[in-house]
Structure formats: structure tokens, C-alpha cells
Design a protein that fits this description.
- The chain has 611 residues and is α/β, with parallel strands linked by helices.
- 31% of the residues are buried.
- The termini are far apart.
- The protein has 18 helices and 27 strands.
């Protein structure tokens, strides 16, 4: 009996780790966990580290470090690829999302109401997401030494080799860690995921946000007339998961959403109500007696029959409905009170833990093909799903972030909902410019990377939404500023003082890289000084020099050379919160000497900064 138990437990002592190739079990190369083996063979507790509940994985400490490590990067504007660059409040940012999130962190700290991400599902396909977030599996194996001298792979590309969970966790953890800091106190991040990583993702979210702030929902992917793909040798998957992470437990609540739950009801108007056709809805919370809560009270119908129970409305709300002729008593006044719902009423519903009836990826793929002229994404999330997230969490002026933007469904959803409810939500899309495969339909259509597809989708969706809502077109913001992640605008110092020559010092007289523009410098200081990247930017000219006014005087800057006292005085008279010039901008020593005195005279409260 003991031997049989040990035999059953023995496989748990073998690890699917590719490096320490000690033995084989079932044809898969594995290594032995000797601590587990010793405990299995012992009748007493084996000495060692004290056990405690924890969630860990290889290189977790590196993932934590990656979240906290500083970066030397900036965001450079790209007006030629933008739409309505000067007036839009939307952003499309190209670059590795971890670095972009770090660039945004200070400026957008606690300003983002909702984040939605659809990260890679880690299905074991031939694609690896490491720190550079764009490495093919073959590159990964080469870089990590997993080829023998003959060039043969040491590990098969399956989930059992342990690589996928570890790499995926090391990718997602630091991004969630930084993203949490961007959320408002009542903000939420919704994450789409499937079975492969839902358990690990839930544990990561528990650690980053706290268990009390994390919930798991189901997305029913079925839709009338369509059917999800059936997996071989198992049941058909008709669901995916949505992990919701709330920034604060005290603000862990969702709004009701405008619903069409009664759209197929039997509408009548038996009492000729001038408000038109109506149906009746139940307001009872069960038929048992009152529980004594705030919505427990007695209602007496016209026939004199009393009902003492819990209701869906308070007593004050009931009396208001009764006075407004919105209470209906069935059975000629002898029945339980019900609420009249008119066909023209907007009905608000509470979201359940199952998101259903919200279209599916197959339908959205067809809609995208109609919009873009080709099928460039296999499993795009439906707009209706993202709109539901927006309805239950966002306000009409919220900032919405998606840092796995993909086909830019979130941007499309934000613009669509703004058109429907007159909102002014703003989106920030972040996407790595991952190259499209040369054999793909997207590449053949001229899209060399994913960002090009996303930007074109936003352009066409914005045009379509304005055409469908001509009366609102003038006020709808369907534009976006394109920004691209790049290294710092400032020259790097590679040598210690001992190694630096006089020639090196002359080369560093201008500390800005030669290929950087005034626009690049402006967006750098906007990030550094807390001006949001959608801020209004106005340009003026004084003495032949361009002056940038950001956010109606929050930041004023000039990066042109040979700036005179006249220009400095003009900037000071604007009395901005911050004033910025380049180190090499001042025309001469006299201007440099007068600089501080000019600001003391005209703008004593302005903070000045020299790049």
C-alpha cells in the first residue's frame, strides 16, 4: 500500500525544466525536485525552509525590479500620422508598453478611470513575449542557449516545458504593477483572458491589487447564428474570462447600464395611457414576509389586500411611481403591485457576473473586414463588450487606456459611446509596432506593422461615426495624436570625468541630440512637468523665435537659438507656471545675466527650467 502511494506521488517530484536534463519521464526531459523526493520517502517532516502560502515563479524578483527600474526614454510627436493633431484629446502611442506606461506614470498618476487590456493568451503558439515584447520563439531559443552544437532544439515547443507560464508572468506582472498607479481611486482595469493563464493572472492581480479588489467574470462568447470553434477531444468552449481589478476596495462598485432587457416584451396600452405602449415589471423581492430592511414596507392594493415584503424600490420611490401613474395592480386591482415600463423609457440594469449577448469575435472580424477591406486580426474583441465596460465604470469625461491596443477596438468603442451619450471620453492607445508577416493579408494590403492597422481603423471608424451622427459630428473628437517611444532627447555621457577629454566637452556644448526637433523637446518637458499629452498647444512668434504655450499658460517654452531679452520678457509677461529654454538658447552672456532678473520682475512665481 505504501509503495503504491509513493508510486502515485512520484511524478510530482519531476520538473519540466529545460536546463537540468537529468532523466526522462514519459518521453519528456525533466529534472528532479530532491526536496519533494526526500519528503515523499520520509515519515517525518524534512527540515528546511518554513512553508508558507505564496505565489512565485522563476525570475519573479526580476519582474518586480522591471516594474520599478527607471528608464531613459521619451515620447516623440508624429503630426504627419495624426488626425486633428492640434485639437484632439486622444492619443495613439507606439512602443513597448512597459516603457510607455513608465513615461506616462508621473503625468497620468491617478487620472485614468478605466483600463482595458486583451493581452496575449499564451496558447503555446510560436511567439514569445519577453522584455522586448517582440521576440520569436526561434530567437528566444537561440538567445537562451537552448540549441545543441548541431543546432537541434533541446526542448519541444509545448506548454509542458515550463517556459510559457514563466515568460508570460514576467511580462504581465510589471505592466500591471505600473498600470495600477495610473488608475483613479475609483478606477478599474478589465482584463480579457482564457483558460491558459486565468489562474495565474488571478493570483498576480491578487498580489498587485489585493484579493478583496479582484473579481473574475465570465464572457459568454456565443451569439445567435454563430458557434465558437470546437476543440478536439473536449467540450466546446463557449466562454472566456474577464478579470476586474479595482484600485480601491472602498470604491468597488459598478454603475447600471442602459439596457434593452425588455426590447422583446409584449407591449400593450390597455388603460390608454397617453405616454404610449407599456409592459409591467415585477418589483417584489420574493413573496415571503418582510426582512426589516430599508426596502421592507407594506403596500395595500385597491382591493384592500396588503403585502408586507421586501421590494426593489424604497417607500419614497414607490410613492413617487404611484403618484406618476407608473404602478399597475393586476387582476383588476386585486394583484401584487407592478411597475409600468413604457416602450420609450430608458431601462437601467445591473451587470451580472456573466457578460452575455455582446456579440463575438467572429462577428467583429466581419465588421472589421467591412470597415478596413480585409481580415487582419483573427480574434478581435467586439465593440459591444468594450462599450459595456465603459457604461458600467466610466464617466462622460473619463480617460480610457488600452496598452495592448491591437486593432484599436477600445478607441472605436470610446468614439461610438461618445456619439451615443454625448460623452467626452478620451482614449490612450498603446501598441508595439510589431511587424506583420510578409505572407499575411495585412502586409499585402500595405500594412507593415500592427500600429498602421490600428491607426487606419481609428481613422475610418471616426469618419463612419460622424457620417452616422451628422448632428453631432462637429463636437465629436475622432482624432488622435501619434507619439512614438524613443531614447532620450539628451546626449548621453559615456565616460567618467577621468576619461573625458577636452574635445568631449566641446562636443557636449549642445546637450540635445542632433536629430531632435523643438516638438520633441516640448513633449519631453510636458511629461516631465505634468502637462498631459493632449494639452492644447499654441504657437506664437516673437523676434523671429517660436514660443510654445501649453495648457493656456501652464507651460511656456522656446527652444530656438539666440533668444534675446525681448523674447525672455515676452515669456515672463505670460506668467506661466513653468518656463523652459534650452541651455544654448540665450543669445549672449548679457541675456543670461538678465534672465533671472526679468522673471523676478514680471513672473516671480514662475518656475524656470533650462534644458
Amino acid at each position: 500500500m505504501v509503495c503504491r502511494t509513493i508510486s502515485a506521488e512520484l511524478p510530482n517530484c519531476f520538473l519540466n525544466v529545460s536546463r537540468r536534463l537529468i532523466t526522462k519521464w514519459g518521453g519528456v526531459k525533466r529534472s528532479i525536485d530532491f526536496d519533494k523526493l526526500r519528503q515523499l520517502l520520509s515519515s517525518d517532516i524534512v527540515e528546511g525552509n518554513e512553508e508558507r502560502y505564496q505565489f512565485t515563479w522563476p525570475d519573479k524578483r526580476k519582474a518586480i525590479l522591471a516594474a520599478n527600474a527607471p528608464i531613459n526614454a521619451t515620447l516623440r510627436p508624429c503630426p504627419e500620422e495624426s488626425v486633428d493633431f492640434d485639437t484632439t484629446q486622444n492619443l495613439y502611442i507606439e512602443g513597448d508598453n512597459l516603457d510607455v506606461l513608465k513615461c506616462l506614470k508621473e503625468t497620468y498618476l491617478h487620472k485614468v478611470k478605466m483600463i482595458y487590456i486583451d493581452p496575449p493568451y499564451n496558447t503555446g503558439n510560436d511567439f514569445v513575449y519577453e522584455d522586448d515584447f517582440a521576440e520569436s520563439a526561434s530567437e528566444y531559443l537561440a538567445n537562451s542557449g537552448q540549441f545543441d552544437e548541431q543546432g537541434n532544439r533541446l526542448v519541444t515547443n509545448t506548454e509542458s516545458n515550463g517556459r510559457f507560464h514563466t515568460d508570460w508572468l514576467n511580462m504581465i506582472y510589471p505592466r500591471l504593477k505600473v498600470a495600477r498607479d495610473l488608475l483613479t481611486e475609483d478606477g478599474v482595469i478589465f482584463i480579457s483572458i482564457d483558460d491558459n493563464e486565468v489562474e495565474n493572472l488571478k493570483k498576480v492581480c491578487d498580489e498587485v491589487f489585493g484579493e478583496q479588489c479582484v473579481e473574475c467574470y465570465i464572457w459568454d462568447v456565443r451569439e445567435p447564428g454563430t458557434m465558437p470553434k470546437t476543440a478536439k477531444l473536449t467540450v466546446r468552449k463557449e466562454h472566456e474570462y474577464i478579470i476586474a481589478c479595482f484600485r480601491s476596495q472602498s470604491c468597488k462598485r459598478l454603475k447600471k447600464y442602459a439596457s434593452q432587457k425588455y426590447i422583446n416584451a409584449d407591449w400593450t396600452n390597455a388603460d390608454n395611457d397617453p405616454r404610449g405602449a407599456w409592459m409591467s415589471a415585477n418589483i417584489s423581492r420574493g413573496s415571503e414576509g418582510s426582512t426589516g430592511g430599508s426596502k421592507s414596507f407594506v403596500i395595500t392594493n385597491p382591493a384592500g389586500i396588503s403585502f408586507d415584503r421586501d421590494w426593489a424600490v424604497s417607500k419614497e420611490e414607490y410613492e413617487g411611481l404611484l403618484a406618476d401613474g407608473r404602478i399597475y395592480f393586476a387582476d383588476n386591482g386585486k394583484g401584487v403591485p407592478r411597475r409600468k415600463i413604457f416602450k420609450t423609457d430608458i431601462v437601467y440594469s445591473t451587470q451580472s457576473s456573466i457578460f452575455e449577448g455582446l456579440s463575438c469575435s467572429q462577428t467583429q472580424a466581419k465588421e472589421n473586414k467591412s470597415l478596413l477591406g480585409g481580415s487582419y486580426f483573427d480574434f478581435p474583441k467586439p465593440i459591444k463588450l468594450i462599450i459595456r465596460f465603459l457604461q458600467i465604470i466610466s464617466d462622460k469625461d473619463s480617460i480610457i487606456l488600452d496598452f495592448f491596443s491591437g486593432s484599436a477596438t477600445t478607441a472605436h468603442a470610446v468614439m461610438q459611446l461618445n456619439a451615443e451619450d454625448d460623452g467626452n471620453r478620451k482614449f490612450i492607445m498603446v501598441q508595439l509596432p510589431e511587424l506583420t508577416d510578409e505572407n499575411s493579408e495585412a502586409y499585402k494590403a500595405g500594412y507593415k506593422n500592427i500600429c498602421e492597422i490600428g491607426k487606419e481603423r481609428i481613422r475610418r471608424a471616426g469618419t463612419k461615426i460622424k457620417e452616422e451622427n451628422p448632428e453631432k459630428a462637429q463636437h465629436l473628437d475622432t482624432g488622435f495624436r501619434v507619439l512614438k517611444l524613443d531614447s532620450s532627447n539628451m546626449k548621453e555621457v559615456f565616460f567618467s570625468p577621468k576619461e573625458t577629454t577636452q574635445q568631449d566637452l566641446f562636443a557636449l556644448v549642445d546637450n540635445v541630440k542632433d536629430d531632435r526637433t523643438s516638438g520633441d523637446l516640448l513633449f519631453q518637458v510636458m511629461l516631465e512637468l505634468g502637462a498631459t499629452l493632449d494639452s492644447k498647444i499654441e504657437e506664437s512668434e516673437v523676434d523671429g523665435k517660436t514660443i510654445f504655450n501649453v495648457g493656456d499658460g501652464y507651460l511656456v517654452a522656446c527652444f530656438d537659438p539666440k533668444v534675446t531679452d525681448e523674447v525672455v520678457t515676452s515669456i515672463a509677461k505670460m506668467q506661466p507656471t513653468y518656463a523652459v529654454l534650452r541651455d544654448t538658447s540665450l543669445a549672449d552672456d548679457a541675456t543670461a545675466t538678465n534672465f533671472e532678473q526679468i522673471f523676478k520682475t514680471y513672473a516671480p512665481n514662475t518656475t524656470t527650467k533650462i534644458l
